[in-house]
Amino acid sequence: PADVARPEAVLALAAGRPTVPLWRNEAGGLAFRIPGETPLVVKWNPRGSGESLADEAARMRWLAGRFPAPVPEASGADAEGEWLVTRAIDARSAVDSRWLADPATAVRAIGVGLRRLHDELDASACPYAWGAPERLAVLRDDGVAVPDALRLAPPVDRLVVCHGDPCAPNTLIDDAGRFAAIVDVARLGVADRWADLAVASMSLDWNYGGGWRTAFFDAYGIEPDPVRLAYYRGLWEAE
């Protein structure tokens, strides 16, 4: 909503410029666009949200020059929360009203973008991990009872740099309907590509309704692997 409360840090960063609400997530995190000669996006997370903008900023810096993603300008924290400023990208989220009305174009762009991410980045050069062993260790450290079916991951198909949260809203699409960039990269790290494919394909149902998974896998260029899809969807839901 346009009247969403602006955190003090966001108002200070805007320095009198307009703040246009873009997004509010389930953890209470907010995103605003600051128009101007160089438009910016400010992300803000409340204390205790469980989402780390410091982690995201570090991954954005690693991605810079390697793959299309926001470029961090500044970051910080105060008693209320944490904030991250990036340069705006001239594109729309895959769940913008324009693309919700044209899911065929959006789904194709998501599949193409994910394939590009997996093909263009060198996993051996990435300092971050998002594999099943690391994720299971986090669950155990958090006191979560890991179901027996998740204790042993399927053999790795192909290690790539995964997005980590490849749900549809985290792909940006340009006005021509082409993949433009990824956003929300706090979990980016090396893992089996099916960790991304499982979540991305599942999220299509939430955003566009059923029936789009085949188009997604066709755009990516792979046949679905039921065993790996089931495992990584289960792991996602357990987190």
What does the model show?
There is one protein chain. By secondary structure, this protein is of the alpha+beta class. It is 36% helix and 20% strand. It is built from eight helices and ten strands. A hairpin with a 5-residue loop joins strand 8 (171-173) and strand 9. Helix 4 (103-120) runs antiparallel to helix 6 (193-208). The protein starts with 7 loop residues before the first helix and ends with a helix. The mean pLDDT is 96.
Provide a quick synopsis of the model.
The chain is α+β, with helices and mostly antiparallel strands and 239 residues long.
Summarize this structure as a short list of keywords or feature phrases.
single chain; alpha+beta; 20% strand; 5-stranded antiparallel sheet; globular; 8 helices; 3-stranded antiparallel sheet
Strand order of the largest sheet: 1-2-3-5-4
Question: What percent of residues adopt helix (DSSP H or I)?
Answer: 25-40%
What is the averaged pLDDT score? Answer: 96
| Total helical elements | 8
Computed over alpha carbons, the radius of gyration is 18 Å
The chain-level structural class is alpha+beta
First-last Cα distance: 29 Å
Q: How many beta-strand segments?
A: 10
| Order of helical and strand elements | HEEEHEEEHHHEEEEHHH
Strand content: 15-25%
| Largest sheet data | 5 strands, antiparallel
Shape: globular
Enumerate the spans where pLDDT stays under 50 for 5 or more consecutive residues: none
